[in-house]
Specification:
The chain has eight helices and six strands, in the order βαβββαβααβαααα. The protein is α/β, with parallel strands linked by helices. The protein has a single domain, classed as Pyruvate-ferredoxin Oxidoreductase, domain 3. It has a six-stranded mixed sheet, sandwiched between helices. β2 and β3 form a beta hairpin. The chain is globular, with a radius of gyration of 16 Å.
Length: 191
Amino acid sequence: MATKNVMIVGVGGQGSLLASKLLGRLLLTKGYDIKVSEVHGMSQRGGSVVTYVRYGDKVYSPIIDKGEADFIVSFELLEAARWTEFLKPGGKIIANTQQINPMPVITGAAEYPAELDKKMLSAGIDLDAFDALKLAEEAGSSKAVNIVLMGRLSNYFDASEEEWMQAIEESVPEKFLDMNKKAFNLGRNSK
């Protein structure tokens, strides 16, 4: 199998590292060689964070270059737009429609770009955008956006719901297990 590439992008503190850990565990159970690389911006200050997950028969490097991502999973719209040049032809972006203002917007030096989802779609990007925050809150915590996004991503992977649930059980503390399973299912089954 040729190497496949998934980028998980967001803002510091949103749980992108847990999402990459969960995806990595799932892919290990499927027998793939996996490389994961975490690139932090000013993650502890709400800055941009990206995680690369590469898998296949044999993966030699953890880095994804421009035009190579099969999937970009984004925790918010501006981050999705920021990384579009990494998407390969035929690739897909799965994005939370939540908008998190970066520092230039907070300070008034810039405005948050309007209608980013419509702009990406009109540029020919295959975008699956939905309100993951609403589903996370329905599951019990706004912090479960990462698991909601993994649930949505699961629709594009050849893995059973049971395999995903096993990966969740191995990745999250037991006290948060039911809430995370609910978040995953809400993301997986939402349309």
